[in-house]
Amino acid sequence: MLTKKVTIGLENGLQARPAALFVQNANLYQATLTLEKDGHMANVKSIMGVMSMAPARGEQLILTAEGKDERMALEALASFIENK
Q1: What superfamily does domain 2-83 belong to in CATH?
Q2: What pTM was computed for the model?
Q3: Residue 76 and residue 78: Cα distance in Å, rounded?
Q4: Whole-angstrom Cα distance, residue 19 to residue 10?
Q5: I want to staple 31 with a disulfide (CB 3.0 to 4.6 A). Which of 23, 45, 65, 72 is the partner?
Q6: Where would I find the H helices in the chain?
Q7: Which helix (H) or strand (E) holds 7?
Q8: DSSP classification of residue 48
């Protein structure tokens, strides 16, 4: 299992369209992926889970990946959140 603290760099946070793209990217990987914010956990492969957290620009979250392709998934998704 790998974890990384990420800061939302997306201008509008992970709302609507960016959240949908984030979830689509997450579904390319076999690893189990979660986001944690203020003790609340969400499945990264669920649009409702991600949007329910309402991640805004500048907020910090914990991204966790566990499984066969965890390193690749964690790097790609962290990059998406931080640099897009």
Answers
A1: HPr-like (3.30.1340.10)
A2: 0.90
A3: 6
A4: 10
A5: 65
A6: 16-26, 47-52, 70-83
A7: strand 2-7
A8: H
What backbone torsions phi and psi does residue 3 show, to the nearest 5 degrees?
-130, 155
- Tokens 């609507």 belong to residue: 16
Which phi and psi angles does 15 have, rounded to 5°? -110, 145
Q: Give the three-class secondary structure for 58.
A: coil
Query: Do the beta carbons of residue 83 and residue 14 sit within 8 Å?
Result: no
Q: How far apart are CA 68 and CA 84, in angstroms?
A: 25
User: Any idea which residue has 């964690």 for tokens?
Assistant: 74
Q: Where are the domains of the chain?
A: 2-83
Band of residue 52 on the pLDDT scale cut at 50, 70, 90:
very high
23 contacts 50 by C-beta, under 8 angstroms: yes
Dihedral (Cα; 14, 79, 31, 38), 10-degree rounding: -50
